[in-house]
Amino acid sequence: MMQTKRLLSLLLVMLLALPFSGAAAAETTERIQLVFEYQDGRISERFEATLEALFPVDIVMDKVLSTNPYLKLQEELTHGMAPDFVLCEYIKRIDDDVLSRYFYDLGAEGFVSNYYLSALEACTASDGGLYYIPGPSYVYGIVYDKTAFAALGLSVPRNYSEFVQLIRDVDALGLMGTEPDPNNPGQTIDVPVRAFVPTMRWCDMSQIFFNTYNYEDSFRGIINAKWLSDYQQGNASMVGHMEGAAQKYLKLFEDGILTLDLWEVIPGYRSRKLYDYHTSLMTVESQQAYGFNEFFNEKKPANKHEIGLMPFYTSDEPDSGYLYAIPRSYVGITAQGAKDPAKLEAMLQIMDYLSTPEGQQLLISGGDYFGFLKNDTALGSDFYTEVLDTIATGRIIPTFYFEGDSHGDFVETYMHDTTADLVNGVISIQEWLEGADQYRDRALDPRNQEIYGVVNETLTPLQTAYVNGLAYLNSMEADIAYVPVAPSYGTQSYLYSGNITDDTIGLITTETSYYTTSQEKEELQYVVVEMKGRALMKQILSWCDHGMAGLAGAEVTYSLSGQDGAQYVSVTIGGEALEMEKTYRVAALRGAVPHAMELQVYPELTFKDMFLRYLQSVGGVITAPQQLTIID
Which DSSP state fits 459? Predict the structure, then answer.
């Protein structure tokens, strides 16, 4: 009955959204404000406008801009700062106990029946709650060259043995092709045409192979699901459960499906071999393959071959073909937003809509659409011909991590990096599995991270930027420190009240330095530069949202209603007002001030080191900086 009411409400809202002829009708429905926190680059540009046209809502879009998005979400939830909707792949990494306390359980809602059961099972928390549903995904299978298959008289395999035989048959043909000579630009070289060239350079691909080919025996069903849940919590071992999986993994090498040289193949080269050079006949890719094929042959259409997608055949049994899914996003609504009955009704109407093919289209930013909805007719392309039955019967394997979704891929990385040792007999299967257990245990350790200090009240992004700047000044010799309130070379994160751990420090570190400083790239070192006051103010206004930056070492009064430079009511350094023509020493991350003259470089400094030194200097307690005054 509740579902029927929602559908009737949805129909009414859609009718109200249609334009009226004649005099404009007065709007009689008060619009409900909903905050959507979303992952940048994952939703359609039409998302906000479409939903506001269909429903009596006013949508506020809030990007998830953070080095650790799932930690940011957890902090927001636990500090009472939750949005109403979350559209983000990182929902899956939030701890189950946090989900159960702060998200609304969707399990009893009618729209969940639109989804394949396998997809819902992958989203179900340990307490049985369904706190999010999957959005469109990257769905991986084996992409093959239809044109080459037809020319060579090859048939698409229907089971594991036929796939192995296909690889052997192609290799036996001794086909040759040409590729650019990497040592002589403009020249080509002859190379053997290979049947199957996936890239195994990163652990996500080896995870796809290991999980997919072992799904039937090691992961499917209640007993296996119970083992995986126990393992992810540190209460089970791979020894005694995964020996058969390791043996089947080795069999992929024995049968020629995998070879160790694939661990060195970069994704770009893998793609060119199939789509551009035609020196391989198959690879592993998602539905993006169609776009890649178009891209590589845009300027030479005669070179383009027709491609298709086939499933991974894991055995010779019927229905042994599977695809592997990595959702681009998940969708959930928070318990805080659901407390208001009127708001909850609007939120569930929107969830109804997002659980339709039209709604799923809003959850992608472009490219081919693939969702987990039953009887979806969006897969009309010939590219999907060989996998329509696989999709219709729900044989789609959801991604997961051995150490639990909230911890990442430590175990998978270990298994990827030690595959050669396993294949070459350097380590035994038991040693390999024991090593995986050890990495799982290390991944669980962050639950008991070292506590470095405490934040006694939640700081705004501006206050956080100022505190980050104080950490700069504590380690670098400068008059002031410049930290933009922006994700690049600055921070847009709150510094939440509570204990300070490595997770806390990672949350407030600039995105740019978080991802690349560890690689010791020269352009991302911390520097002291020389800047005149006028150049400093210009730099602030060009980089920051609303022209805001943490100017540590200065006393600043801001006006939030000010325009351009007017929001800085006063800036005082060393007791004297900022002078436009005076020269100042400014500490910053290189790149934040790209045109300033560098006076000193600190190549060994990391943000964590600076922050911990500053924390020690203030007795381990972070308070709101008193040098900031906000008016208006």
Answer: B
Helix (H) or strand (E) holding 461: helix 461-475
Helix (H) or strand (E) holding 464: helix 461-475
pLDDT tens-place string over residues 40-78: 778 888 999 999 999 999 999 987 655 567 777 888 888
Q: Show Cβ contacts of residue 323 under 8 Å, excluding neighbours closer than 6 positions.
A: 139, 140, 141, 311, 312, 387, 390, 391, 395, 396, 397
Residue 129, pLDDT > 80, answer: yes
CA dist 461 and 326 (Å) reads 32
DSSP per position, 478-535 = -SEEEEESSSSSS----B-SEEE-HHHHHHHS-HHHHHHGGGT-GGGSEEEEEEEHHH
> What backbone phi and psi angles, to 5 degrees, belong to 22?
80, -150
Please return the burial class of 45, using the count of CB atoms within 10 Å of its CB with bins 0-12, 13-18 and 19+: exposed
pLDDT confidence band for 529 (50 / 70 / 90): very high
Per the CB < 8 A criterion, the answer to whether 282 and 142 are in contact is: yes
Cα 169 from Cα 195, distance rounded (Å) = 9
Q: Percent of the chain at pLDDT above 70?
A: 87
Closest Cα partner for 465 from 551, 587, 541? 551
Q: Three-state DSSP class for 242?
A: coil
- Structure-token match 């001794």, residue found: 174
Residue with tokens 């595959």, as numbered in its chain? 419
- Rounded Cα distance between 512 and 507, Å, is 12
Other beta carbons within 10 Å of 291 = 13
Task: Looking at 63-176, list the stretches that DSSP marks H as alpha helix, in order from N- to C-terminal side.
Answer: 69-78, 96-102, 117-123, 146-152, 160-173
Give the distance, in angstroms, between the CA of residue 53 and the centroid of all CA atoms in the same chain: 29
The answer to whether the beta carbons of residues 510 and 487 sit under 8 Å apart is yes
Output the six-digit token pair for 22.
């004649």
Short-list 581, 147, 87, 166, CA closest to 364: 87
* CB contact at 8 A, 32 and 343: yes
- Per-chain mean pLDDT for the chain: 86
- The whole-angstrom separation of Cα 460 and Cα 466 is 10
Altogether, the residues listed in the chain come to a count of: 632
CB atoms within 10 A of CB 188: 12
| C-alpha closest to that of 377 among 353, 366, 361, 395 | 361
Which of the 8 DSSP states describes residue 174? T
Residue 536 parent element (H or E):
helix 533-543
Helix ranges, 418-460 (H): 419-423, 429-444
Quick one: pLDDT at residue 19?
37
- Max CA-CA distance within the chain? 83
Q: Residues near 263 by Cβ (< 8 Å), separated by ≥ 6?
A: 200, 201, 416, 419, 420
The pTM of the full predicted model, rounded to 2 decimals, is 0.72
Which distant-in-sequence residues (6+ apart) come within 8 Å of 443 by Cβ? 403, 404, 407, 408, 410, 411
Interatomic CA distance for residues 254 and 223, integer angstroms: 29
138 has which bridge partners? Answer: 326
> How many C-beta atoms lie closer than 10 Å to residue 521's C-beta?
14
Whether the pLDDT of residue 629 is over 70: the answer is yes
